[in-house]
Amino acid sequence: MTATDSSAAGPAHPLSAAEWAVLDAMHTAGDLATVGLRLGLDQAVARQMLAGIAEKLRLASLVGDRASDGAFEVPARDPCPFCENYAGRYGTHGPPAVVAEDELTFAFLTPVPLGGMPGHLLVATRRHVETIFDLTPEEEAALAYAVTAAARAVRAAFDPAGVLVQQHNGVAAFQTVPHVHFHVVPKTAGPFPPAEPARVVPFEERVRQAELIRRHWTLAGR
Ligand SMILES: [Zn+2]
Fold it and tell me: What is the rounded (10 degree) CA torsion for 9, 13, 14, 17?
């Protein structure tokens, strides 16, 4: 769970013009201070844009053009980043900010929200289950409850213009993490993912957001 399948969107993950400008400047300048000066960006902003670019490219490389033979294919990713996090082994984004959990499911904030606002949640099984076709009836029910509770909670916490729920099975359907999960994405109006660069939310900020959502999660319970 880092990590982040923040892949809700599709295989292209196109870079914005501003992101291409940062990449091009990096090629010739070679360091962030110079890139910032050339583009009139604060160095911290340039660093954050680079992190967003790296995330997009990582996701694009996972999807690639596999599954072109028409076969159902689950993305190869070993070890599974969600199971790694459950075991206390964290990737580049650090530990997950968990909002809610029960015996069968976890809900946590993705480090790279794609809805144009805070609160993009992933709701995943505790057990390593590759796709929706491999769930037990108990997991199906628990996920349905957790996804609905998550949608209510992010709506109550952030008052979004909309809440997008998305789930992917197979590379052809843009699955990038081989561990079943639903995206629950509070959204501003506009394209998905938004045109502006994705921002990596620092862990401490995610923990604060998780606490806010958790308060509403309780209220939203049946
Ligand atoms: Zn797993």
Answer: 100
From the candidates 93, 168, 179, 181, give the one annotated as an active-site residue: 181
Q: Measure 17 CA to ligand 1 centroid, in angstroms.
A: 35
Q: Please say if 27 is a catalytic residue.
A: no
Q: Going by CATH, does the domain composed of 1-222 fall within 3.40.630.30?
A: no
1 contacts: CB under 8 Å, gap ≥ 6: 81, 82, 85, 86, 96, 106, 108, 122, 124
Q: How far is the CA of 95 from the centre of ligand 1 (A)?
A: 15
Alpha-carbon gap, residue 122 to 156, rounded angstroms: 17
Which among 121, 119, 110 is positioned nearest to 52, based on CA atoms?
110
Q: Please, which residues have CB less than 5 A from ligand 1, an ion?
A: 80, 82-83, 128, 179
- For the chain (222 residues), the mean pLDDT of every run of 10, in chain order, is 42 66 75 80 79 71 61 91 93 91 96 94 98 98 96 97 97 94 96 83 95 85 48
- pTM comes to 0.73
